[in-house]
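re: that complex we talked abt at group meeting.

here r the seqs, copy pasted straight from the sheet so there may be weird spacing, ignore it
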Amino acid sequence: MTGRRALGIVIIAACLAPALRLAWQAAFGDLGANPIEAVEHATGAWALRLVLATLAVTPLRRLAGWQAIAKQRRTLGLFAFAYVVAHFFTWSVLDNELEWASIVEDIAKRPFVTVGFTAFVLLIPLAATSTRASIKRLGKRWVKLHRLVYVAAALGVLHFFWLVKKDLRPPLVYAVVLAVLLGLRIWWRYSKSRSSTVRRPSARAFSIARSQSPRTAFDSGTATRSDVLNPDRPRT
Amino acid sequence: MAHLLRFLRTSDVRTREITDRDVYLRRREFLTGAAAIAGAALIPGCSRDNGSATAAEPAEPDTLTPKEKATAYNNFYEFGTDKTDPAEYAGSLRTRPWTIAVEGEVAKPGTIGIEDVLTAFPRQERVYRLRCVEAWSMVIPWMGFPLGDFLKRFEPTSRAKYVQFETLVDPSQMPGQKRDVLEWPYREGLRIDEAMHPLAIFATGFYGGDLANQNGAPLRLVVPWKYGFKSIKSIVKVRLVEQLPYTTWAASAPDEYGFYANVNPDVDHPRWSQRKERRIGDISKRATLPFNGYAAEVASLYAGMDLRKNL
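got the structure back, here u go
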């Protein structure tokens, strides 16, 4: 078994573990006094954790030099989406018992539900365009489209913040992690544009697309279709 | 009669411990035995004909919440903000010796030890619904006595318009107090007529025994027609005052509820609807009743008040 394949299996197992644990607890009546709430909170927390894990891939590769992790980003992203879907169904089916009036009222009237639901909706096109074919078809637009994950992650953290009653520490932990992950990207952009002679970002994107490594270009949204499909292509 | 309550002498407790049938309470059996009738005389409305109330009655029966759930799922921030924290950390609370100071607008201020409380005020069993502001609920067989009996012993003056209660502050026993999640001590309050209402009790026990620490041992308030946070736990101080007292949640989250916090399905919490609740142990939700089903007894306390404004 190759190292990459082994890593893939480890990632899948790690992503499945929380779901298996919940299933195990549900089967043995071990979800506590309020099992629906327990599932709702667990799926929500894992959705958020995996979104952040997805966003951590690029920093891990660039800062720690862990190249192999890049191949696992799609797996992490799709599992994150799966937990979001599970969270949404727990809330709408088990908690709200498919009462559309109260579901719609919650989404419309309660900001923490509004932002959570918005994050879910934003992730749908990302999950739908996660295939190689989509990457190929959308090209540069794929990269732009998938920047929606930044917005979804921020809304997810906000969803958690606005939900908690008093103890802000748990959502704060997520917020700090997200701030670091997004801050790095802003820093990379900022430091790049300082070193670049071209001031306007759109023009800069075109001008440096050919000169930088495909991966860097991919991160900054300037990758071409073939860069995305062949991230391991040697530096030109 | 749309309420659920039962009065028993302490000595009667064993009868309800013996069978599941007894655990399965039906609303219409809210009074049991001769002792119950004596207790019922205290409750305005208890002897009323119940024919007209049928339409408003809950469709589902009220079943006692198993003790292992009532002791495992608690909000008691003094021990942490997770529902399971109180069960995990409340063991460090020392409930003996324990004294309760009564001060303010009373003719006879003083301090009373918990042992004296237990001998001075005979315990009755009261099976009450407990509705948390978080839209879950339980049915708990408390052991306690009317709060009014306790207050009268200290002779409130005519200026005693409100009662304020305080929980113990001791971070070494209550590890959650090491953080300023709320402003300690936890404080709650009632208007004097609410406090004197026969349904408002001080509980010292439940399920036929003493209170578990996570449920507010050794002495807590139980006001069944208000959201659970009003029913302050592990009380060390009772203060009778003339002005509306500071209450913890009203001060810390003024956008949510005010001083009254009566259960009201028609007024939403800012973050969720209060129309329904999940009874712990149930999968599907049930309708929340005005005043948690005790409207016949307590609604008159609020005659003329706009309950949409006086939250």
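couple things i noticed - Chain B touches chain A at residues 69, 72-73, 77, 81, 83-84, 136, 181-182, 252-253, 268, 270-273, 275, 278, 280-281, 283-285 (CB under 8 Å). Residues 62-302 of chain B form a domain with the Sulfite Oxidase; Chain A, domain 2 fold (CATH 3.90.420.10).
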